[in-house]
Amino acid sequence: MFSWSVRALFALSAFVLSAQQIQLPRTADGKPNLQGIWQVRGNAAADLKGIVEGGAIPYQPWAATKKQQNFTSRLTADPVGKCYFPGVPRIMYMEYPFQIFQTPEHVAITFEWSQVYRLIYTNGKTPPHDGIDSWMGDSRGRWEGNTLVVEVKGQNDKTWFDSAGDFHSDAMNVTERYTMLDADTIRYEATIQDPKVFTKSWKISMPLARQKNLPRLLEYQCQAEAEEASGDFERDPRTWYPNPGAPPSPLGKPAVMPPSGTLPEVKTGTNLRRTPDGKPDLTGYYTSNAGGANYGLEQRRSELRLTPSTRGVIIDPPDRTLPYQPWARAERINREEPYRGYDDPTAHCFVAGVPRSMYVPSPVQILQPPGYVVMLFERMSWRIIPLDGRAHIPDNIRLWQGDSVGHWEGDTLVVDTTNLNGKTWLNEVGDVVSYAEHVIERFIPTADGKITYRATVTDPIAYTRPWTIEIPLSRGNDELLEVACHEDNGDLQNLKNVRDEYRAQQKKGK
Amino acid sequence: MLMMVTLMAGTVLAHHSFTAEFDVNKPVKLTGKVTEMKFSNPHSWIYLDVEKDGKVVNWALETGAANALIRRGWKKTDLPAGTVLVVDGWQARNGTATANVSSVTFTDGKRLFAGSSNESAETK
């Protein structure tokens, strides 16, 4: 017979085990459910030394010297200080929230910091393009019991671990381990191997805390905010959302908008692949056949070799031109002047906004985790579309990608976007949009891997009526690569020179 | 007058950033040896040692987006230093040894990054 204490011990351990099994939220495929909004508390991003196991980073002697040099010059030399990508693991412990999404083949992490994302492939596939190095690395993950193990390879040598100058070479491999301890805590560990810089591998460990009070991520657009503060990126009072207390757009009362025209119906496909909840499965890597929309939404046949012809993607109004108010048509024409090139936000590598993100000539990965559609753009940015019918965020919060809420109408995904900031151009020739923009998009799956994309834009400050564009999206068998636009941005200074020359000439002429 | 130049797939025909840096009235034709290739987006760069009048000048040649080249199978190691290339392009407005490339061939005339000559690959 067992003693009372042993019986109690069994009962207790059975209770603890079953409690542990109940405690962890799980996905449909039985894995710990890491989804939600998380953040690291603490100052690891300033200096890692507090969380390095064993106390100190084991630098080789030459590297210890270099670290000291980095530390001395950190105020100017820290890549994150220039808004460059932080790399892995630093992105995980910057003091901004991030959101984890989990599907059978991917774990996606979207970061509030500069709209960076990481796409961790858990489908066992190897990268289709090898030998590529990047700022954020290539991440491949697998589950070991209740721990997600992620191998991060191919990072370049341009990032630091923190703002104290801790650095690595391009030979670094990082192994991460995400272990859910309870519903609100993930233990995050990263093991660093870099035989060029360290005498042995070393490890950091820290908890990720669920941010239960945040309904969604907002934006910290590092470079855009820096340039606005310095005056390098100037306010356009006609299109930007007014500052608190400032007068509204000098264009006066917005136009009263008639309804949109009737659009030809597009039939959704039969035999579509579906997610477990019965909705069309839009998951995949997509490119757009946009006919040059990033160089003009209206049709234009170009005589000049270097200005592309554009097919024209407008389907309403029926004459397929944009129903501009006169001021906006004049502005659009002026934006083609060479000295205006500097004003295109994407020339600064700022985020493209909505709907432009859908037709810049770069691919997009669509993911469909429970309750969301998530879009990851090769031009490093994301859109998170919740499907829970929530209200939009308050009117005075304005974002480059706006605030999107989605729902299904039959097999069509309908996305409603407001709260845009009016800072974007619709393309490189400067098609105009203001902060009053309200976009309704329809993602219409016509067959597996084929989506007819429509966007109806209602903007009473720039236009006289709503207009709609239509662009086909096609799924391909490929993976996103990295675009480090700001990090490699050589063009911007040339554009600024042209603008400055023009302004100098204008001054002389006066 | 039509210019009979073919543009590499992946060249970003962003007329603002092109005209801000390069001059369509300054065509150049260069032959030289590769010293380095830098893959980046939206432009990659080929560095070429070009000999003229006994002097060697290293030219910086702006070419297509790295990701477009990678997707057509190109790797960094495919253009080793010393490879001889023939380049047509447009020189920088400021007259430096910098040019935007419209076509690149090997000495036998075979086009580098050969494939679709359709410049609208980037302007889809």
Beta-strand residue fraction of chain A:
25-35%
Shape of chain A: globular
pLDDT under 50 segments of chain A (min length 5)? none
The helix fraction of chain A, in percent, is: 10-25%
Overall pLDDT level of chain B: 79
Strand content of chain B: 35-45%
Which structural category fits the helices and strands of chain B? mainly beta
User: Radius of gyration of chain A, rounded?
Assistant: 25 Å
Helix content of chain B: 10-25%
CATH architecture of chain B: Beta Barrel
What is the number of strand segments of chain A?
19
Description:
- The complex is a heterodimer of chains A (510) and B (124).
- With 510 residues, chain A is α+β, with helices and mostly antiparallel strands.
- Chain A contains 6 helices and 19 strands.
- In chain A, β13 and β14 (381-386) form a beta hairpin.
- Chain B is mainly β and 124 residues long.
- Chain B has a single domain (15-112), classed as OB fold (Dihydrolipoamide Acetyltransferase, E2P) (Beta Barrel), CATH 2.40.50.
- Chain B is 10% helix and 42% strand.
- Chain B has helices at 15-21, 66-71, and strands spanning 22-38, 44-52, 55-63, 84-92, 98-105.
- A 5-stranded mixed beta barrel of chain B has the order 1-2-3-5-4.
- In chain B, β1 and β2 form a beta hairpin.
- The radius of gyration of chain B is 14 Å and the shape is globular.
- The chains are: A alpha+beta (510), B mainly beta (124).
- Chains A and B meet through α6 of A and α1 and α2 of B.
Topology:
The complex is a heterodimer of chains A (510) and B (124).
Chain A: H1 4-23, E1 36-39, H2 61-72, H3 74-77, E2 98-102, E3 106-111, E4 117-121, E5 138-144, E6 147-153, E7 173-182, E8 185-193, E9 202-210, H4 222-230, E10 284-288, E11 314-316, H5 326-334, E12 364-367, E13 372-377, E14 381-386, E15 403-409, E16 412-418, E17 438-447, E18 450-458, E19 467-476, H6 491-509
Parallel strand pairs in A: 4-5
Antiparallel strand pairs in A: 1-2, 1-9, 2-3, 3-4, 5-6, 6-7, 7-8, 8-9, 10-12, 10-19, 11-19, 12-13, 13-14, 15-16, 16-17, 17-18, 18-19
Chain B: H1 15-21, E1 22-38, E2 44-52, E3 55-63, H2 66-71, E4 84-92, E5 98-105
Parallel strand pairs in B: 3-5
Antiparallel strand pairs in B: 1-2, 1-4, 2-3, 4-5
